[in-house]
Amino acid sequence: MTAFRIKDLASPKGPISRATLFRHIAEGRLVARKVGSATVILAEDWRRYLEGKPIAARHNAA
Which of 5, 9, 24, 26 has CB atoms 3.0–4.6 Å from 30's, for a disulfide? Predict the structure, then answer.
């Protein structure tokens, strides 16, 4: 089972900010778990969260 810490998902290479992740957790949009003092997100929960997002529109190159 794979899990991510918030800092892994919200790093400069990550797709979303730390504040947004915590807001989505608080609003129930993203499932997180506590392991000691760490907040972790299971890979399955991260996948479900992303799958619930709209698909980006394609931009045609001129």
Answer: 24
